Every structure is written in structure tokens, then in C-alpha cells.
Amino acid sequence: MRKLVFFLSILLTVSAVYAQQFPVQVTSQLIPPYTTQVSEYFSPSQANAKLNLLLLNRDFNKPVLNVRLRMSIESQGVRMRTKEDNPGAFTTLSINAGVPYYVTPSQLAQYFNINNLEISGMSPQEYSSVGKLPEGFYTFCFEVVEVSSGQTVSNKGCTFAWMNLNDPPMLNLPVKGESVVPSVSPANQLVYFSWTPRQTSSPVAAYTTLYIFTLAEILDSTVAPEAAFLSTPPLFSDSVTTTNYIYDGTKIGLIPGKKYAWRVQAKTKDGISEVATFKNNGYSEIFWFNYKTTCPLVTNVGSAVLGK
Q1: CA-wise closest residue to 128 among 116, 109, 117, 114
Q2: CB of 66 within 8 A of CB of 97?
């Protein structure tokens, strides 16, 4: 008998859920590649919006509904939710019956404002200063609230994403601190640079990665090469989509006897826009090398015996 009552209670609960019809349908979508950079979810400057939110008023008895949103973002350790104590802080959205309403990035921006959020799992100061979410699996949910009544008039439209930052490239050649001899004469220099990507097992691997190769001359040998690189204007910079770079005679000439440092920055490209998906802003470690003079082999060696 208890089993029967339990089964019937489940049926009644499920029936009640399906019977509950909201006048507004909310559909939310996060666009990959996913990023922990909060501003990319609402910045109008983004060529491709990372967060799409669509509202549909299905109640033709109310041709126009004046509403606001309620947002929640949750992971294992972080929770953010729209404050309810100041509903007047949000712009009213007027949605017409039967007409899909796209919430623009500028309309979403107010819901990410620190003053309009209850935050746990990270400090408001950290949220404001860093502007990034900690890595993890996130749920973004949105509901629609009628302005006049304060009642929830929509389903809870949720979307999910695993957000993690990838390691920047690992530099290979030239090896840190080695002496590099050009494979041909210094006037026709040929130095080979290579690095290993470390996002190949990530969903980011499905998108184009742009590598910014930067080379600088180390002018002060008393300073650590890493520090000198950061304080020295670049001698040369170029971008490639490959994991190597050939520095040949068409580039700025390297001077034998000088020390040079180099670095690579990785950037993920989603179409024409760049997406923040790497740790350390995609910057690799800094390597350096000593550029040596080519010393040709001695040829045509001969000898003669000289008399007294």
C-alpha cells in the first residue's frame, strides 16, 4: 500500500510539473569556445555573442508583457544570483506576444554588474578586479519576472558549460640558453623556432589557434633575460597558425655575438574574434639564446718543407 501511495505521489508531481504552463518561454545558449572572462558574455564589442538569450511571449491574452530577468550562475564552488531588493535597477523589457525577443549584450550587462549580484564562493572584490570565473562546470539559468506583479512568468531556461583555461605553448627550439649558429652565413641567417601546443585534448582544439611570435635583443647582460625581455621593445613580431617559425634572411638581421630572447602567445580565434581560453593570457615561458658567428671549415690546407 505504501508503495502504491508513493507511486501515485510521483505521478501527481510529474503531472503538476507538466500542467504548469508559463506564458513566457526562455531559451538560453552558451557559445563555444567557452571562456572564464565574464565580460565576453555581455560585451557589445564581441563579434559573436558568447551568451544568447531568447524570450517568447506565448500568452496572446497579454499582447505585451513588461518584464525583467533573474539570473543565476553556479558551479561547484561559486554561486551568483540577481539581487531582488532593487528591481528598479533593471531596464524593463517589453515583449510582444508571438514575437521572439532577443536580449542584447548591452541589456545583459546590468545583470553582471557587481552591484546587482549576490555572490558566494568568491569575494566581490575578486569578481570586480579579476573579471574572471574560477574554472569549473557552470550552469547559467534565466527566468522572466513580470514587473507589475513581481511574479515569475517563465520557465527556468538553463545552459551548461565546462570552463577551463588551457596551458600556454611549451617552447622547444632553440633550447633555453644555448648557442645558436646560423645554418648558413649570418647575412643569410636561418634560425628555426618551434613550440608544442598544450590544448590538443581540449574542446578549444577544434578552433583556430593563432600564435604570436616575438623576438627581442637583450641589451643588458647584467639583467635576467626574462626581465630584460619584458622591458625591451620587440625587435620582431609575427603571427602564424603553425607551431614553428623560420627566421630567415628576409627578417631583421641578427648580430653575431648578441643575445636574443623569444616568446610565443597563443590566442583562440572564434571566427574573427579572439577568445580568452589560456592561462597567463596565452604567454609561454621566455627562452633566450646566444647568436654565434659562423666559423667555416678550413679548406685547401697544404704544406711544404722549407730548406735551411
Answers
A1: 114
A2: no
pLDDT at residue 40 in the model? 86
d(CA 15, CA 32): 35
C-alpha cell at 102: 532577443
| Residues 6+ positions from 220 with CB-CB distance below 8 Å | 228
Q: According to the model, what pLDDT value does residue 82 have?
A: 96
What's the pLDDT tens digit per position in 107-126?
999 999 999 999 999 998 89
Q: Give pLDDT, residue 24.
A: 96
pLDDT confidence band for 49 (50 / 70 / 90): confident
How far apart (Å, rounded) are the C-alpha atoms in residues 308 and 290? 48
pTM of the prediction? 0.71
Nearest to 228 by CA among 238, 245, 215, 239: 215
Choice among 108-122, 127-141, 270-284 with the minimum mean pLDDT:
270-284
Residue 95 burial by Cβ neighbours in a 10 Å radius (0-12, 13-18, 19+): buried
Cα–Cα dist 260/290, whole Å: 6
Q: Which three cell numbers stand for residue 296?
A: 667555416
